[in-house]
Write a structure and sequence with these properties.
The structure is a homodimer.
Chain A (H helix, E strand, L loop, with lengths): L7 H6 L7 H9 L4 E4 L4 E3 L7 E7 L2 E6 L5 E7 L4 E2 L1 H6 L5 E4 L3 E7 H10 L1 H27 L2 H18 L7 E3 L4 H8 L3 H13 L3 E4 L2 E4 L2 H8 L15
Antiparallel strand pairs in A: 1-8, 2-7, 3-6, 3-8, 4-5, 4-7, 9-11, 10-11
Chain A binds a DNA duplex through α8.
Chain lengths: ~240, ~240
Amino acid sequence: MSDFEHGPFSRKLSAFITLSEAESAVLASLHQRRRKIAAGRDVFQQGQLGQAAYVLSAGWACSYKILQDGERQVVDFQVPGDFLGLRSVLLHVSDHSVVSVTDIEVSEVLLSDLLGVFERTPRLAAAVLWAASRDEAMVVEHLAGIGRRNAVERMAHFLLELGARLSLVGMGSRAGFDCPLTQYLLADALGLTAVHVNRVLRQLREEGLVAVKDGYVAFEDYERLTEFAGFDPAYLDQPGPLLK
Amino acid sequence: MSDFEHGPFSRKLSAFITLSEAESAVLASLHQRRRKIAAGRDVFQQGQLGQAAYVLSAGWACSYKILQDGERQVVDFQVPGDFLGLRSVLLHVSDHSVVSVTDIEVSEVLLSDLLGVFERTPRLAAAVLWAASRDEAMVVEHLAGIGRRNAVERMAHFLLELGARLSLVGMGSRAGFDCPLTQYLLADALGLTAVHVNRVLRQLREEGLVAVKDGYVAFEDYERLTEFAGFDPAYLDQPGPLLK
DNA sequence: CGCGGACTTGAAGGTATTCAACATGCGTGG
DNA sequence: CCACGCATGTTGAATACCTTCAAGTCCGCG
């Protein structure tokens, strides 16, 4: 049985462990409670008692925090195959909010489901922990970018990372990718103002590195952009399953 | 049997699950390979093939990334009970480095140990995943701070969070805590220069909020500082075990 | 005693923000 | 159908925050 039949989530996990039929079946059983959510709706909110997490099967979502003074910081964007709110389910109280950027489709995963999966198929526990680690690695890279890169490098690096992630699920290439993010969302992700995001994008465009226009990110000179941003995709790549 | 007998790691996990004797024994078995490391030594490095993670049992450590241009971003500091390199063991390649800030004591945990623990005691898998989630929540809060708080608020929030974490393991209070971090380390953690850290600390001292001097952080007005920094410890608190 | 690491302070400069104005495109209702 | 509102994108000018560069202090230690 192909690991790819059950959608992007199985596809993602199968990069870490080779899924047995039993394990595939257990994963498939997680997709019982499907929901469609329109663009711009909160999936869940910061502070909410969250017993459920979700697996995103279609569309883009965005996890963010609202600070005391009302400022928003986008922590990460989620694309198909990613978890929504995995931390929340384990922390009992959500430390962040998630909003749909486009129309999305999700499967609800209860804490009890997750614990059941862990007991019946411990290898899947490792796979889920791996997926969580990979997500955290991206958050950490994001942290480093905000802390230590200037606005232009930060944007360049961010666009390259997003492109690499999307390539892994067949939604992007070295040419570019469709991107539904507004300059406001980009600003809140990169710790900038929307005004400055605009200037930075102009600069990257004028230097012939990357052009963002009409919902499409076009890499005009992938090599030079990679060089400029100091982008190293090692933390995203998974050469093969670690557990056979 | 008290959950506290086996050191800060068991103490931390027992905030999430009530440990059975069998589970405590399994945890204790993880502390077979103990190592002492002098201050200022790398425990492991970014890019290294890391089969092993560590549990910190004494002292302070610091995880960081080095960017292309040589700039350092400190991701988090670790105090007793915290994991070192859990992500690395699951990602196979470490995405960050860890250095000892003080003399430290660690226990090595192999990937095979961890998988064994998951198979024998699935509830511990959940507990470990919870601990990882809690650590990630701190990284996310850190990200939000760097992205959306100015230098003074950022520093205030950081010191409050550190104080709260240390209080949980009995190493701090609302009065203050011992802190071995230099202004250079603080700068690299907060995405500032050491020079500006110095000015920010002076400002916080002059406003009677918090004073950092001779390795001790003294909260001079905890209430007002909390208010000023917009500090909400919800994501650190765990009212009681989620799994009995 | 001299050296290095950590800390401190001033002055100048650059990056990103703030404020303000305007352009563009899309959907909705008059 | 066109007017209008609203979200998004664009650009300029003034300002603020933080960095950079530079100089110097303090202290522990070989």
